[in-house]
Amino acid sequence: MKGRFVKGVITGSIIGATAGMYAASRMTPRQRKRLMKTGKKMLFTMMDNMGWF
């Protein structure tokens, strides 16, 4: 059971990373910059709410 879960998480992560890289390669530089800015803001908000830093 645990082994299947780990395999699923790893497979899902690889598929998600591949899809993200493909989508980012098809974006214009302006769209890519806006996406990075939004992602960075969301990551720092999440870390701030968790109290990591």
Describe it.
The chain is mainly α and 53 residues long. 87% of the residues lie in helices and 0% in strands. It has helices at residues 2-25, 29-50. The longest helix is centred in the first third of the chain and has 24 residues, at 2-25.
Extract low-pLDDT stretches.
none
Classification by helices and strands? mainly alpha
Order of helices and strands: HH
Structural Rg? 15 Å
Number of H- or I-type helical stretches: 2
Mean pLDDT across the residues is 90
Shape assignment = flat
DSSP helix fraction: over 70%
Largest sheet: none
In total, the number of strands is 0
Give the end-to-end Cα distance, rounded to a whole number of Å: 35 Å
Beta-strand residue percentage? under 5%
What are the defining features of this structure?
53 residues; mainly alpha
Topology overview:
Elements: H1 2-25, H2 29-50
